[in-house]
Write a structure and sequence with these properties.
This protein is of the alpha+beta class. The chain contains 15 helices and 19 strands. A hairpin with a 5-residue loop joins strand 4 and strand 5.
Length: about 500
């Protein structure tokens, strides 16, 4: 009963606040001072800039705009904190400077209101660079109260749903998304400097490919055809390599109709890039250089801390999958005489595999069971079995394996790369086997072979290295964020009933 009374009291208090704020707005409108009719305010400086540029010899004359975050009314003079996109600055306002009406209007303002003010910078007796207000204008009235400052906005579910409040109340959150923007800017600058061309490819695609990823399906009314939100950008980008654009990349939104957890969101951002006349080793070199550069630019050092774990992004270990399974599982692929021997080894290690599992399939299962959770420091795992690499080129000296790698950091896969398969005959056969296997597993699937892509390969795809990696996981790593929802401004959420 006591808890119910507390909830009712909170609701009553909120209703009282809402009523008072709307009454204040009504009074402003009646007096001809409707703040929502104002269209602009000339801003000359920002909070952070004022603090950087102020000197005692040359106080800065400035006009700023932002949100009132706290205030301390003291009769004829008051202090308050104003927050803009760069941070907060303390402001001092005095009745004798702004006039009796303006000061009375200020005292009626609420925390959360958006104001514009002009004045000059100075240093208070406590040593804080502040702004001495000479004029103040209410630019927008806040009709809802901000969360109480000391406790802030802590409920994660509410934070993700009301990101606008989260950004107001939590400076670290704003810093995360500023860093996200910087990370993308640095990646683009790096790739542009390497001669890559940024392109856009279709998000709505006409067929469901044989990928393991489940797509979102929609319908195009004019064409009267089903269409799908893309689950990758790969096949269109490699068409461009065929067309002679020999270094291309796309920063693209990807959509997968699958589960959600701290590392997965149905809508996410990936970067895929393709470079003609190189192979997967070229892509390894690019990843190592790119990640080391980003760590230094964003975090100040190639050695970062992620969730309490020190990670050295300046160095990547390189292991074949066979070497990794031998190192961590104690099973040597090269000693398996045939598929049956591989399955027997899996049984000894208490790893379940299909009754008809091949040596390559067993290797993959042992990797999942024993290796991935050991890969804390950055590690390239390369030379994947052909069984799960339908788009990668076979190794010329060992066709059971492909020229493919994934790289792992803190026990998590961060990216995937190939020496791209450019044999149209082999590619067609792999696609058809992939679709047949999917239809056997899911008879109602709409997956089809992308025969237009096969046609493109028949015109000739040069030897090409390709790489894809998730931007969101990279941002999580460089901002020490535990969940993908912490680095998406508006993550997918179930609606509140």
């Amino acid at each position: 009963m006591a808890e119910n009374r507390e909830v009712l009291n909170e609701e009553e208090q909120l209703n009282d606040i809402l009523k008072v704020r709307r009454e204040k707005l009504a009074t402003l409108v009646a007096e001809g001072h409707d703040p929502f009719t104002l269209t602009k305010y000339k801003v000359t400086d920002y909070a952070a800039g004022i603090k950087e540029k102020h000197t005692d010899e040359n106080p800065l004359q400035a006009a700023v705009a932002g949100r009132i975050m706290s205030r301390r009314i003291m009769g004829k003079a008051s202090f308050f904190h104003l927050q803009d996109s760069t941070g907060t600055i303390q402001c001092y306002i005095r009745r004798d400077d702004v006039g009796e009406d303006a000061y009375a209007g200020f005292k009626k303002m609420d925390i959360g209101d958006i104001v514009g003010l002009s004045g000059f910078s100075f240093v208070t007796k406590t040593g804080e660079i502040s702004l001495h207000c000479q004029s103040i204008t209410l630019l927008a009235k806040s009709l809802l109260p901000l969360p109480e400052k000391f406790h802030g906005l802590k409920d994660n579910d509410l934070r993700y749903r009301q990101r606008y409040v989260d950004l107001i109340m939590n400076p670290d959150v704003r810093d995360t998304f500023v860093k996200r923007s910087r990370i993308l800017k640095e990646i683009r600058a790096y790739l542009d400097g390497k001669g890559f061309l940024e392109v856009d490819t279709p998000i709505l695609v006409p067929l469901e490919i044989g990928s393991a990823a489940r797509p979102f399906k929609t319908h195009h009314n004019t064409l009267d055809m089903d269409m799908y939100l893309r689950v990758e950008t790969e096949l269109y980008l490699k068409r461009l390599i065929v067309g002679g654009l020999h270094r291309v990349y796309e920063v693209g939104r990807i959509f997968r109709n699958e589960g959600m957890d701290p590392k997965h969101n149905p809508e996410f951002t990936s970067i895929e890039l393709y470079q003609a006349f190189t192979d997967y080793y070229g892509m390894m070199d690019l990843v190592e250089e790119l990640y080391g550069m980003l760590a230094v630019k964003i975090c100040g050092s190639s050695v970062i801390t992620y969730q309490g774990q020190q990670i050295d992004l300046g160095h990547f270990e390189r292991l074949t999958m066979v070497e990794a399974v031998k190192k961590y599982a104690g099973c040597d692929y090269n000693e398996w005489a045939d598929d049956a021997a591989a399955r027997a080894c899996a049984a000894q290690k208490h790893v379940e595999v299909p009754v008809d599992a091949t040596k390559g399939t067993v290797l993959l299962e042992l990797f999942d069971a024993f290796v991935e959770d050991k890969l804390i420091q950055p590690t390239f795992i390369y030379d994947y079995p052909v069984e799960n690499s339908p788009l990668a080129k076979r190794k010329p000296d060992n066709p059971a394996f492909t020229e493919r790698f994934e790289y792992f950091i803190n026990c998590t896969e961060y990216g995937n790369a190939f020496s791209e398969l450019n044999d149209p005959i082999d590619q067609k056969q792999r696609f058809e086997r992939q679709i047949a296997a999917k239809r056997a597993e899911e008879p109602d699937t709409g997956a089809e072979v992308d025969y237009d892509y096969i046609t493109a390969l028949e015109y000739g795809l040069p030897p090409t290295g390709g790489l894809g990696f998730g931007v969101d996981r990279l941002v999580m790593l460089l901002t020490d964020s535990p969940s993908i929802r912490d680095v998406l401004l508006f993550p997918t959420m179930k609606p509140i009933d």
